[in-house]
Write a structure and sequence with these properties.
Layout (H helix, E strand, L loop, with lengths): L1 E4 L24 E2 L7 E2 L9 E2 L1 E2 L3 E10 L7 E9 L2 E6 L2 E7 L5 E4 L7 E10 L23 E11 L2 E11 L4 E10 L4 E11 L4 E11 L4 E8 L15 E9 L2 E9 L4 E3 L4 E3 L2 E2 L2 E6 L13 H13 L4 E4 L6 H10 L2 E5 L11 H18 L5 E5 L8 H14 L4 E3 L13 E3 L1 E2 L8 E2 L14 H4 L5 E6 L18 E2 L1 H12 L6 H24 L6 E4 L28 H4 L6 E6 L14 E6 L8 E8 L5 E9 L11 H16 L7 E7 L10 E7 L1 H8 L1
Parallel strand pairs: 23-24, 23-33, 24-25, 25-26, 26-27, 28-31, 31-33
Antiparallel strand pairs: 1-6, 2-12, 3-5, 4-32, 6-11, 7-10, 7-12, 8-9, 8-11, 13-14, 14-17, 15-16, 15-18, 18-19, 20-21, 21-22, 29-30, 34-35, 36-37, 38-39
Helix pairs in contact: 1-2, 3-4
Length: 708
């Protein structure tokens, strides 16, 4: 049953809706928008998609539940996967509890209220902003996921024994090939004896280890830690080999048996000099933003299948990273990323200009951070946490949150805010501009467009005291594709598209709409190639986060994606073509300019962006220069050498000696330059696994020396 409460009287004496039988009906899980509830909206917003129904305030949901006799004496928990925003629970006309969560499930213990038999369960969900918040953050905004009201995802009443596992954290130790399991046991006031069985399996079901631990519970909540060995065949988790394990903990006492299962991966994240490191190797983040755009529902998907569809698309276009811009996704997103091998950055629903002004709001953010870390902390894909987007104000408050997060869970890296200010506690920093902590000379690290030359990068600008990630790169906008309008069959309508359509018609240019889309789209594809490659050429770059692989239909109708708001292709570029300039391994050319006269000699410096799964050893590089008609103007073969800095670190003295010999030979009178060859010089950055390109010239003798 359902009822609106636009005046907010439902909790006041004399008007208590939780004492009444509600008069309408609605289907849950779902939102009011999907149920056709609220105020019918006929406005055509030009800066966002338009909801068919809008509502902001309290809404009431109610039904009868029957508690079976066998639940007598068990702990009963009401779990609501995602509500928006404050949720109050009433049982049989009595208030029980209130919670406020935007990023994690709401859970209420209803053991005392839900005795065996028939009960009336009533929820009040209030989607009004509880604290002063700017209008932009994607956890609450009207601009992307919408400020919906309802309950989505899993809705459950769960019966547990009086002694049960409340929480399980898994800490991998790659060097020892072990995991430490930390369990929080809930005990409802009685002493109990029993045993705890811990079992780890590979995803195919093969058992890796099992241990049984006797437990003696004193009657109060307790914590247990136990180490488990995975053995020498332990498999690591990363983007190329996302090996997963299942850990099942079973607590058996006189009160009954309780089981808790969690997926985890053996991976270690640490801060390198310029790169984030996973399992002892530098990674480079080729990232996209997820701004919580779900045009059919207006709220985020809670099923793994949909997130796999989105994340497979992300990987198809050569990306290995997703930043959740000022919001945190449901569990299904983490499950999908774990399985597919994607690195996730999760954020609080924070995008505010007056940090530190409201203590109650600050307390909410701290509780929300703890809830996110506790709920999703075991997921190997969850490698980065940030307080939020482009915050301003008292950064001591943001740094305090970072320190508390680091102390609570060290399985990932933390940052105070994307952009604006870099603080000492940052373990990485995503920004448009950057400087070392305390420096005022900030320099641009983000790239928005290409240049007539490709012989440039952001290496000097990106060399700060932590790994730096270029923030919201690209941002190239194109004309809307009016064919997309037919896809909007859900709660949101593209009335902004219609406004632009009408403007074209008024000016006699509607027949050119397709040409405008294709021309601006082609330009966008070229610009993103330039943007991506500039940061692939940047040896000190920790990565980039592209604002728009998919469109961003809020905050100004930003058609910045080569994919539409549904994460589907606009037909502008194939994934295969896009991966030529955005993939784990990319061939790069440094050109001084784009146009040459017939009186000039064309030269190019070639390089390899390599963050693939295996080292590239010695090999033969073949090249050819083709005319537009396909005629081969020039070609050649060259020997090349690339060093794997992880595996070859013990060879550093020999490599330095070799390079010195090559340099001396090239500088001697005996050297007759014939072709251009790229060598890779191991310099002072070698200890941080960096390789810097240097151009030398070689003939047959140098090739022989390289072969040695």
């Amino acid at each position: 049953r359902f009822q609106l409460d636009p005046m907010g009287f439902g909790k006041t004496p004399g008007s208590e809706l939780y004492l009444s039988k509600l008069t309408e009906t609605i289907e849950l899980p779902g939102s009011m928008d999907e149920g056709g509830k609220g105020i019918r909206n006929i406005v055509a917003h030009v800066d966002r998609l338009s909801r068919k129904f809008e509502y902001c305030g309290q809404a009431w949901y109610q039904r009868e539940v029957v508690i079976p006799e066998e639940w007598e004496g068990r702990e009963i928990i009401l779990s609501l996967e995602r509500c928006h925003w404050e949720t109050a629970v009433f049982v049989d006309g009595e208030p029980v509890a209130t919670d406020e969560r935007l990023s994690t499930p709401n859970r209420f213990i209803l053991t005392k209220q839900l005795t065996p038999g028939l009960h009336t369960l009533t929820l009040c969900v209030d989607n009004r902003l509880k604290y002063p918040m700017d209008q932009w953050n994607h956890g609450t905004t009207e601009y992307t996921q919408t400020n919906w009201n309802g309950v989505v995802g899993r809705m459950e009443l769960i019966a547990k024994p009086s002694c049960y596992i409340g929480k399980m954290d898994i800490y991998p130790n790659l060097e020892a090939k072990k995991v430490k399991v930390c369990l929080a046991l809930h005990v409802s006031g009685k002493q109990a004896e029993g045993e705890l069985t811990l079992r780890i399996r590979e995803k195919d079901g093969k058992e890796v280890c099992r241990t049984v631990v006797p437990v003696s519970l004193s009657g109060k909540d307790e914590k247990i830690e136990q180490e488990l060995a995975l053995g020498r065949d332990m498999k690591l988790w990363d983007e190329f080999s996302p090996a997963l394990y299942d850990l099942t903990a079973t607590l058996a006492t006189e009160a009954g048996e309780d089981t808790c299962t969690s997926v985890f991966g053996m991976r270690h994240v640490e801060q390198g000099r310029h790169h984030i490191r996973v399992n002892g190797r530098d990674i480079h983040l080729r990232g996209v933003l997820d701004c919580c755009v779900f045009p059919l529902t207006g709220y985020p998907a809670t099923d793994v299948k949909e997130w796999k569809r989105i994340f497979n698309t992300v990987k198809d276009y050569g990306m290995n990273h997703v930043r959740f811009h000022s919001w945190c996704p449901p569990e299904a997103a983490f499950d999908a990323a774990d399985e597919l091998g994607l690195y996730l950055q999760v954020e609080l629903p924070m995008w505010i200009k007056d940090v530190g002004q409201y203590p109650a709001r600050r307390d909410f953010f701290e509780k929300e951070m703890y809830a996110i870390l506790d709920e999703y902390g075991n997921h190997p894909s969850f490698i980065l946490f940030c307080n939020g987007n482009e915050n301003e104000g008292n950064f001591a408050v943001l740094e305090d949150l970072v320190k508390k997060g680091q102390a609570r869970d060290n399985r990932r890296l933390y940052s105070a805010s994307t952009a604006r200010t870099h603080v000492k506690s940052d373990q990485y920093y995503a920004s448009h501009v950057a400087a070392n902590v305390g420096e005022k000379n900030k320099r641009w690290i983000t790239v928005y467009e290409g240049k007539p030359s490709t012989d440039w990068d952001r290496s000097e600008e990106s060399a700060i005291d932590v790994p730096v990630i270029a923030h919201e790169t690209g941002q190239r906008c194109m004309y809307p594709n009016f064919e997309e309008m037919k896809k909007y069959t859900g709660v949101l309508e593209p009335r902004n598209f219609k406004v632009y359509q009408d403007r074209l018609a008024k000016n006699g240019m509607l027949h050119q709409a397709g040409e405008f889309f294709r021309a601006t789209g082609a330009h966008t594809v070229l610009q993103y190639k330039e943007v991506n490659e500039a940061l692939l050429r940047t040896s000190t770059s920790g990565g980039f986060q592209l604002l728009g692989l998919s469109d961003f239909p809020g905050q100004g109708s930003a058609f910045v994606g080569i994919l539409d708001a549904f994460w589907e292709s606009k037909g502008l570029v194939t994934p295969e073509k896009y991966r030529e300039s955005c993939a784990p391994i990319v061939l790069l050319a440094r050109l001084q300019k784009r146009a040459y006269t017939n009186a000039e000699t064309f030269t190019a410096k070639m390089g390899i962006y390599h963050f693939g799964p295996e080292a590239i050893r010695k090999g033969l590089l073949t090249w050819q220069l083709e005319s537009e008609s396909g005629e081969i103007a020039a070609s050649g073969k060259q020997f090349g050498l690339v060093v794997d800095p992880v595996k070859d670190i013990e060879k550093r003295p020999a490599m330095q000696q070799l390079l010195t010999s090559v340099r001396n030979y090239v500088a001697s009178d005996r050297f007759a330059p014939t072709v251009t060859l790229q060598l890779y010089e191991l310099d002072a950055l070698f200890d941080y696994n960096k390789i810097r390109e240097t151009e030398t010239r070689s003939d047959e003798a140098v090739k022989q020396l390289l072969n040695q």
